[in-house]
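Honest question from a wet-lab person: if I give you the sequences of every part of a complex, can you actually get the arrangement of the whole thing, not just the pieces? Trying it with mine:
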Amino acid sequence: MHQQPLIERKSTNLEISSRARGLPQWRNKQRSLPVGEKIELIGRFIQETRQLELVKKSCKLSVTSSNNCSAKGR
Amino acid sequence: MQAVCDVLEQLLREGSLRHYAIGGATAAGFHGEPLATRDVDVFVFIDPPAGALLVTLDPLFSRLAQLGFNEFEEEGILIHGLPVQFLSAATGLETEAVEQAMVVDWENHRLRVMRPEHLAAIALTVGRPKDRARLVYLAELPDFDYSRFADILLRHGLQDRWHNWATALGLSQN
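Yes, you can. This is the full assembly:
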């Protein structure tokens, strides 16, 4: 199922004018979500943060593995 | 995440927990916009087993295992796919934050979440760089109650620390 991006970072005139008053539009939008939707968004944030960390860990592992191979002359 | 809230309420109803409130970045994100975090911090009161002096989370984990949640990821137990970290409310401030948590009802669900003023006070006591960022975020929320916050600071002897941090971080002190 297609999901909307968590953070909309399109630079629009509306966002720029909103930022001048304080918060960017996407932050205002997230702050004013109904409770149920906000709770689900928080859950998605946690899931995506975990996925990013897994990617970071696997990248570190592959760099380490590559360095080990180089050190051994392979 | 709604399913996690339902499990917490079930544990409360059946007495596996005496009290609980969601804290940390999840709670901070609830009061504003969601913040990046790896797990859901849940502060709990649990009665020690009869005759024991130490509080243990084992009975809670046993009950969760009976409900089918027995997989751990780092410090969190996975509940409906989300890592939930149970923390025994230790300090007076954490205890008060759990006791005075907001109760939010929606569509037959219920959530107990620490108030922003308590979260800010806890951030002050912990003091990591991310707690400083969280304090700025919380103190700038439109509904942040400075009067309630001042009372909390007074009760827990945190006025001097708040004054120092607010000055360093450029926060309003009223």
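Two things worth pointing out. Chain B has two domains: 2-114, 117-169. Residues 2-13 of chain B form the longest helix (12 residues).
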